[in-house]
Amino acid sequence: MFTYECGVWSPAAPTIDWGESVLILQLANCADTTPPTMVLKPDIDVFSANGKTHEFKAKNLVQSVTDNCDSDLKKKDVVITHVECDEPAPTTGGPDIVIAANCESVDLSYRRSNRLDGRVYTIHLKVTDSSNNTAYGSIKVKIFLSGLAITSPTVYTVLSPCY
Asked: Which domain holds residue 74?
């Protein structure tokens, strides 16, 4: 006899020959307490502080999303919780961080202060499975100037509706 509970076969996954049929029942008492796994892509380096705005979609910042009990969980389920910046907010030209109301993307300005060591944005992400377990991660977008983009302490933070 084989059982399948919370994504795990016991004693091991059965071998089924071609043409055989099998009845699989998942036990209803699955108490999923394990958060999903979210693998992020590498940090992003930008070598052109041209003042233009670029959109970053949460799902494109993620390599993969997996969960032990929720096979429907995908990269599209990742949302942005907040974005931090290590240089002061601009006083002219509008905001440099604009998070979409649905938390699925953020517009970042490729501008920076010429007096400091390179603007670094930190985009914070989360994904929650159907059992309300959450995984968190963050990715940096570094706006270089003369070869520099050093992460300094956070100067300000913009929260999303999904914070």
From this structure: 34-159
What pLDDT score was predicted for residue 73? 95
* Tally of domains in the chain: 1
DSSP letters for 56-109? EEGGGGEEEEE-SS-TT--GGG-EEEEEEESSPPPSSSS-SEEE-TTSSEEEEE
Residue 6 domain-assigned?
no
The 10s digit of each residue's pLDDT in 19-76 is: 777 666 655 556 789 999 999 999 999 988 788 899 999 999 999 999 998 889 999 9
CB 156 within 8 A of CB 118: no
What amino acid occupies position 52?
K
153: domain CATH number is 2.60.40.10
pTM, two decimal places: 0.81
